[in-house]
Design goal:
mainly alpha, 6 helices, about 0% strand
């Protein structure tokens, strides 16, 4: 289990680090988009803060996954971003859905592997 956790954590960290760095450095040209996804993307860019915020979260969580520090916190912080990635891929760009599913399952696996750290969130006091 430890080796699988290390592999998944490293892969997820590399994915998030690479995508966030490429966003900020603009080393990769933006792929041409069409239809509903283009309208959605134009709205994200028009907000001026949302993409830099999401990419900053991805960068910090990617660093956390790669270093192994604050992984429990990074799993929770990145979860809404991953849900958004999954839903965007499902509804707007189905050809990218396998990537969204892989990242989603990777995050669920990391949450499962650190479950003892989350148990206190679900205990009923009474």
């Amino acid at each position: 289990m430890k080796i699988a956790t290390l592999i998944v954590r490293t892969l997820m960290g590399a994915i998030f680090l690479c995508t966030s760095i490429s966003y900020f450095v603009l080393s990769n040209p933006e792929p041409a988009t069409t239809g509903d996804f283009k309208a959605f993307q134009v709205g994200l860019i028009a907000s001026t803060y949302l993409m830099p915020l999401a990419k900053s979260v991805e960068f910090l969580c990617g660093l956390s996954f790669l270093t192994g520090k604050f992984t429990t916190l990074a799993n929770i912080i990145i979860f809404p971003v991953i849900i958004n990635i999954l839903l965007i891929n499902y509804f707007l760009t189905p050809n990218n859905l396998p990537i969204g599913i892989a990242v989603f399952l990777g995050n669920l696996f990391l949450i499962y592997s650190h479950w003892k750290n989350y148990e206190g969130l679900f205990k009923m006091n009474g």
